[in-house]
Structure formats: C-alpha cells, structure tokens
C-alpha cells in the first residue's frame, strides 16, 4: 500500500506557471505604462491580457485630463461608453461648431489634433462668384475647398474657442496653387488662374486670448501640390477658461491681383507632429 501511494506522488508533475495565470489586476497595472497601440497588441495574447486591456483605469490614463470637456463640445457623442470605447471614439474625427471643425486624438499618443474647414473661415469676398467658388473634392477631409479665381484684397481669418489640453501646439494653413481634377483616372492640375503670389509674400498671423502672438510670411509656389504653411506656435498652460486662438493669412497689396489658390483648411496639432504633417500629401 505504501509503495502504491509513493507511486501516485512520484507521477505528479509540477505545474509551470504561464502568462495566462497572472491576475488581470496585475496585468492592468503594467499596461498603464504602455502606449495605446502596444496595449491593443498585447490584448490578443490571452484571456488575462484581453480582460486587463479593457480596464477603465488603463484607458483613463491615456485620455486627455480634460476629455470630459472635449466630449461636451463634439456633436452626437454616445453616452455610457467605457473608457476604452471613449478613447476609440475620440480617435475618429468628431465634428463640432456645425460640422465646420473636427477634433480627434492621435491613436499612438492620445494628443489632441484639430482641423477647421474653409467653410469655418471668414474669407473676404467668398459670396461673390466673380472671385471665389466652392469646389467638391476627395482631396479634402471636408470634401470641399474654397477656390480663388482672382482678387485684389486677399484675406482669410478664423478663430477657435476650444478646451485644448495643456501643451504646445502649431497652426498650419493647408493650401494648393491650381485646381486639381481627374481625367482618365489620372490627377491633373489646372494652373491657368495662378498668378500674383510671386510678387509679394503672404502674411500669416496668430494671436491668443492670453496674449501670445506669432507672424510668418512666405511666397506661395509649387502649383499642383498641397502644402502646409506654418502660421506659428502657441502654448496652453491649463487655465480653467478655454483659450481662444485667432489665425489669419493676408496678401492685401492692391497694386496687383492674385488668384488660382485652393484654401482647404487650418490644422492645429501638437508641435512634435509638425514634421509628420509636412510629409503628408
């Protein structure tokens, strides 16, 4: 009998622990220190990681501190979402101010980015078809751009009053000389109206409700290519009241006309995204 009992003991093999044996709470405490894309990849490992990756405190650490204020400003944001789904939803473009502006989170970092359409800008003479027209295009995230045929006084202004999180931001105008279209599946650009931009530089300006200012200027060139023109940078320091930011581009030398310009949008993004933005399009 003793020998039989010893046989049962000797045949029992030790159990080797695996990642799947870790408590979800421990896994979640580690995921907090990883970026969102890494969390999504690790969620596919096993059930423990999948459950831990859904923990509210994990995703709340990735959301902007003032994400609740951002949600209040966007249109048709769903209620009763968990923090993971809130993050996922905010990573999609969310419209506000009547659909003329969109805000989203960068998927990798959770930083806030924003785009303002040409319809959300104050453009001198926009309602006079002798000067301006609206053009539908798939090359804009808003599906339309403002096209300038010819004008003497060129002025485009805008402002945004939004609860941006603390950080440093850059502002860009997205512009193109010439009118792009497609023929037989190929992209072509009509530059017949392009003139006047080589005589005087365009002046870009920004100012904030906290007294920050920036001014740059440049000549517009390279027809047929969408370019991001840097207006300047500003810093959000975390005041309770949302910072109001104003931006403009002008070329008001009335000694000559200018034309053939597409105005798509204004982009506001973290300063560290500036180089990435310039490489697009």
Automatic annotation (TrEMBL):
Residue stretches spanning the membrane: none
Residue span, F-box domain: 16-62
Domain of life: Eukaryota
InterPro entries documented for this protein: F-box-like_dom_sf, F-box_dom, PP2-like
Pfam families in alphabetical order: F-box (PF00646), PP2 (PF14299)
Matches recorded under CDD domains: F-box_AtSKIP3-like
PANTHER family reported for this sequence: F-BOX PROTEIN PP2-A12, F-BOX PROTEIN PP2-A15
Protein's UniProt name: F-box protein PP2-A12-like
Organism for this UniProt entry: Nicotiana tabacum
Gene name, Swiss-Prot/TrEMBL: LOC107793911
């Amino acid at each position: 009998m003793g020998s039989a009992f010893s046989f049962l003991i000797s045949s029992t093999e030790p159990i080797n622990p695996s990642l799947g044996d870790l408590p979800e709470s421990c896994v979640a405490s580690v995921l907090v220190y990883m970026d969102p894309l890494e969390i999504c990849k690790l969620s596919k490992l096993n059930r423990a990681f999948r459950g831990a990756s859904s923990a509210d405190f994990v995703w709340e650490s990735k959301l902007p501190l003032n994400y609740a204020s951002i949600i209040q400003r966007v249109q048709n944001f769903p209620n009763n979402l968990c923090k993971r789904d809130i993050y996922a939803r905010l990573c999609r473009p969310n419209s506000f101010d009547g659909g003329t502006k969109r805000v989203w989170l960068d998927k990798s970092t959770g930083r806030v980015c924003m785009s303002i359409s040409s319809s959300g800008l104050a453009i001198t003479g926009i309602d006079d078809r002798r000067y301006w027209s609206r053009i539908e295009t798939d090359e804009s995230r808003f599906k339309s751009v403002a096209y300038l045929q010819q004008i003497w006084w060129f002025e485009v202004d805008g402002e945004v009053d939004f609860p941006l999180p603390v950080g440093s931001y850059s502002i860009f105008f997205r512009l193109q000389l010439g009118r792009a279209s497609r023929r037989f599946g190929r992209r072509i650009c009509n530059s017949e109206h392009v003139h006047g931009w080589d005589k005087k530089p365009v002046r870009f300006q920004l100012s904030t409700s906290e007294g920050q200012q920036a001014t740059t200027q440049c000549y517009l060139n390279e027809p047929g290519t969408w370019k991001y023109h840097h207006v300047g940078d500003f810093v959000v320091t975390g005041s309770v009241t949302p910072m109001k930011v104003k931006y403009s581009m002008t070329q008001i030398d009335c000694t000559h006309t200018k034309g053939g310009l597409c105005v798509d949008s204004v982009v506001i993004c973290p300063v560290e995204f500036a180089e990435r933005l310039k490489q697009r399009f």
